[in-house]
Every structure is written in structure tokens, then in C-alpha cells.
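Action item from last meeting closed. Structure (425 res):
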């Protein structure tokens, strides 16, 4: 949804004290997979206004695929996206609460109950409709995120719940944020083809443009043990190396056309592993030569959003195209996959391996579940992801904190979320 008054679109530095929401997941009944979501809104008074407001930023499937909300909950969700006049607000809330009340999702999640509990703590970001994403923990314990839609970068102090945000250079449209070993803040300028270093003391960013005009969309990055940043460029079909000390950027193009390199991780030996979002492959990169090796995965409809690495060196990945969780063993060259609990349309997305337990999100169903998989027992459990009282929004990335918990986001709820996990064993 877009913001109304022009003033609400002015980016500025600010601080906000806001108490976080804290909820505890309770057991839920198992639900079976349903039909695909409707692609258009119900025809009734208010439809045109809702369609116009919402579709300028995202598809109406965010509404039609939702589990539905009460008027109070629709109000909370809309208020994080757009500022409306009193009259427009009444029309929009009347329409949404009447035609999309709590009634279950047209593509319901299958929640797998179990004894474990996960608690969620959410902070709402300040600028409306900014679609916060990719939160990461800094050495001082603060949480950094970027707002791709709002062209912002933000910091949360979990101890006080203070939220600060700053504008980034025009058209940066940041996709992700990373923190180096010294606490330096870096973001990927997905919109203007740059890597940026942000200085919170001055509120200014230094940009490093891509050396090749075909390298248009820096996407996801990770630092290695030597302080080198490795990053993907999804639509440019490239992978890059950036040295922050010299500003040197080197790029290689993936041989497989349409591979669309997406998630990236650094193994303990420095090897880079990259997910193919447009094809059925993983990519291994030699950090010394930048030579690429493609590993074919089973299934022509396989696509991989993100991956992570367990302590034994195995590569865990989400098979987003087939609704599965997979693992590749570089030592044996063998691959195994398991059906995700919500089925082939569940579209697993974000993933993190913590204490050799695999955590990932299902983004194609509602409410979006956080799924836990134990490789030792090959068993699943899951819980709906919540931002306050709201359940909705796609978790596109999740990252571990230093104490073994998870940071994630729900863009449609304008929230950054900390999931406190049960301890292993």
C-alpha cells in the first residue's frame, strides 16, 4: 500500500520508543492443503479503493491469500502501510472486515504440532509501507534492517526498543544489510547497482558502484573470515567479490542461463555456496579463483531461494519450486529431499541452521509457518509466525543471533521479529 500525504513519504532520521509485542505460540490443529488463492478481490462497495491502494505496492493476493482478520486487526495491518483520511479509512476497513473476516486461508498451512515452543517478539518500523527486510545482529547487540520499498536503513535497540531510521541515496532500494567484523554497516543497493557503507554517526552512505553496467542488482551478501564480501546479483546472473579495504569489485557470470543466483553462504573452509532461484542447481565457488561449479539437483521444476550449512559441511536448501527441504553432501555428492509439511505449493523460502537444527519458513500458505526439522530424527514441527497479533507476510530471509535465536521480518506487517528458540537437546 502507498502512503497518502506527501509528508509521509519524506525520509528522515528519527527515534521512536515502542514497546515490542511478545506472544507465545500455542498448539494448533493440523489442516490440509487447499485450493489456489483467488486472483481478484470480491466485487462490492470499497473494492476500487482497496484495489487502487494495495496494488500499487503489492498484489491483491496478499489479501485473498490471507487468513482474514477482524476489523481491529485489519486496522492494525493497514496502519503500518498507509495513512488514510477518516472517510477512506472507514470505507477500506468496512470492505476488508466484511469480505475478508477471519475464515481460514484459501491455501491453508498444515501446522505440525509438537512439544516445542517458540516465542516471537516484534518491533514495528517507523516509516509506513517500507517493507522492512533482512534483519541482522551487530556486535553491540543492536538489530539492523533495510526498508526496500521506503529506501531506508534502520536500527533497533532490543534493550530499550528504540527504533531509528535514516534515508539512503536515491533509488538505492536496499535489498539486504550486513555487518562486518568491526561493526561496519553495509547494504546492497539493489535499485541503483551499488554496495553501500552506511555511517550512523553522520547519517551518510558511501556508495561503490558496480564496474559493469550489466551488473544491475546486487542482492544478498556475506562476509568471509578475511573480511571479503561475497554477493549475488540475481537478475544479472552474476556473483561478485568486494574488498572493503580497496573498493575493488570483481564479477563472474554464471554459465547456466537464467540460474538467478540468490542466497549465498560461506563454508568453514571459505568455499562459497550459492542457491539458484531460476534453475535446479546449487553453485560452488572457489574463493581463490572465483571458478564456479554447478551441482544439478533433481527435478526440472526445482528452484532454490536460500541455503545454509550444518557443522558437518552439508548444504541444506529450500526447494521452493517443489515445496521440499533438501540437503546436499559435498563429500559424497548425494542429495536427499523431504516434503515440506504444507505440501508442494508451500514455497519454502528463508532458512537457517542453528545447532544443526534446520529452521525455515513456508511462504506460499497462510498463516506463514516457521518450520523446525531435526535431521537426527527426520521429524518436522511448525508454528505460525506472528508479528504482534498479526499473522501475515512473507519471511524472505532469516539469520541467527549470537545466542542461537532467529531474526526475521514480515514486510506486510511492517515488523522486524525476533524468534526465541528452544535450546537443542
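Sequence:
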Amino acid at each position: 500500500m502507498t502512503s497518502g500525504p506527501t509528508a509521509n513519504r519524506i525520509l528522515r532520521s528519527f527515534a521512536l520508543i515502542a514497546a515490542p509485542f511478545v506472544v507465545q505460540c500455542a498448539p494448533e490443529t493440523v489442516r490440509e492443503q487447499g485450493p489456489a488463492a483467488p486472483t481478484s478481490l470480491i466485487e462490492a462497495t470499497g473494492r476500487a479503493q482497496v484495489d487502487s491502494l494495495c496494488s500499487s505496492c503489492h498484489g491483491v493476493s496478499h489479501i485473498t491469500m490471507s487468513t482474514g482478520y477482524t476489523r481491529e486487526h485489519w486496522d492494525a495491518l493497514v496502519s503500518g502501510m498507509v495513512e488514510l483520511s477518516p472517510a477512506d479509512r472507514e470505507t477500506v476497513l468496512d470492505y476488508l472486515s466484511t469480505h475478508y473476516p477471519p475464515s481460514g486461508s484459501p491455501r491453508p498451512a498444515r501446522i505440525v504440532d509438537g512439544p516445542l515452543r517458540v516465542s516471537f517478539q516484534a518491533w514495528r518500523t517507523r516509516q509506513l509501507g517500507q517493507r522492512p527486510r533482512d534483519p541482522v545482529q551487530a556486535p553491540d547487540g543492536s538489530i539492523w534492517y533495510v526498508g526496500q520499498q521506503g529506501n531506508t536503513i534502520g536500527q533497533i535497540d532490543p534493550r530499550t526498543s528504540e527504533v531509528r531510521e535514516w534515508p539512503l541515496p536515491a533509488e538505492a532500494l536496499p535489498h539486504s544489510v550486513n555487518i562486518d567484523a568491526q561493526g561496519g554497516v553495509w547494504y546492497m543497493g539493489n535499485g541503483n547497482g551499488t554496495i553501500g557503507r552506511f555511517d550512523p554517526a553522520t547519517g551518510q552512505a558511501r556508495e561503490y558502484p558496480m564496474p559493469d553496467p550489466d551488473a544491475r542488482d546486487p542482492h544478498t551478501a556475506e562476509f568471509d573470515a578475511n573480511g571479503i564480501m561475497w554477493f549475488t546479483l540475481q537478475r544479472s546472473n552474476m556473483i561478485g567479490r568486494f574488498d572493503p579495504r580497496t573498493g575493488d569489485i570483481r564479477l563472474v557470470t554464471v554459465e547456466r542461463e537464467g540460474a538467478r543466483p540468490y542466497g549465498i553462504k560461506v563454508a568453514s573452509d571459505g568455499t562459497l555456496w550459492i542457491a539458484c532461484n531460476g534453475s535446479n542447481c546449487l553453485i560452488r565457488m572457489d574463493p581463490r579463483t572465483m571458478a564456479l561449479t554447478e551441482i544439478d539437483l533433481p527435478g526440472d521444476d526445482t528452484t532454490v531461494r536460500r541455503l545454509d550449512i550444518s557443522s558437518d559441511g552439508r548444504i541444506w536448501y529450500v526447494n521452493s519450486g517443489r515445496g521440499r527441504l533438501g540437503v546436499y553432501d559435498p563429500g559424497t555428492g548425494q542429495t536427499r529431499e523431504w516434503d515440506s509439511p504444507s505440501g508442494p505449493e508451500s514455497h519454502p523460502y528463508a532458512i537457517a541452521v542453528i545447532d544443526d537444527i534446520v529452521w525455515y519458513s513456508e511462504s506460499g500458505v497462510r498463516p506463514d509457518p516457521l518450520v523446525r526439522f531435526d535431521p537426527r530424527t527426520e521429524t518436522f514441527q511448525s508454528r505460525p509466525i506472528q508479528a504482534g497479533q498479526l499473522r501475515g507476510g512473507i519471511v524472505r530471509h532469516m539469520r541467527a543471533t549470537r545466542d542461537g535465536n532467529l531474526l526475521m521480518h514480515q514486510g506486510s506487517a511492517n515488523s522486524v521479529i525476533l524468534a526465541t528458540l528452544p535450546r537443542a537437546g
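Note appended to the action item: The CA atoms of residues 144 and 155 lie 4 Å apart.
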